[in-house]
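=== RUN LOG ===
request id: a7f3
mode: sequence -> structure
chains: 1
length: 258
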Amino acid sequence: MSADTILETRGLSKEFKGFVAVSGVNLRIARGTIHALIGPNGAGKTTCFNLLTKFLQPSAGTIVFDGQDITHERPAQIARRGVIRSFQISATFPHLTVLENVRVALQRSLGSSFHFWKSERVLDVLEPRARELLRTVGLEEMADVVTVELPYGRKRALEIATTLAMDPQLMLLDEPTQGMGHEDVERVTDLIKKVSANRTVLMVEHNMNVVAKIADVITVMQRGQVIAEGPYETVSKNPQVLEAYMGSTDVELQGAHG
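=== RESULT ===
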């Protein structure tokens, strides 16, 4: 594993009672890049994410992170290594304020649990960093808003802030723009580009316009296997990719949704 590779899988496979969801996947994620995992529904993308974060155990294959074999580690060990995942469904506390959500995430990153019965003053030491993270994602003015009242796109921005609070080396973003209107998609896309400046991002994303705009490398999956990999300009012209997405090679992939 070369020094510029932060994550590598070798022959990664997952079988569910005879159904092969992921088959022999070889991924190599370069340090400091935005790497997109795309493919039509049922291609195995989310299963791959679950394998990388150890929410699922692989049936076969190896996962290497930062030079260490992590294939048999537990999810908590993976997170401590700096592999932090945000989920498709916004994973925040709806009845805490925006600021409180980030403080909880910061406390988790320090290795201590959140004790609801303790005085809030215990968390005051975390407030400057929490506000800095809110500035990063453009939510500083909404610090005191109860999270349930946030517009959907801003909730996703908050989720990115809580992910950043864990100080990730590798951020795994699962459908970060799903269900958003155009304006929110633009905002979150720009935010992902911004926060990727000093870290590596691996993202599952259906919106091809987002992928085209920010991904350095794209891996395309179909039926659990990798069928193409490379920059958008190359992948978007690949006949096998066009066939997988559209059932025809006589179309443009630009703007397609899988």
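=== NOTES ===
The longest helix spans residues 152-165.
The longest strand covers residues 5-16.
=== END ===
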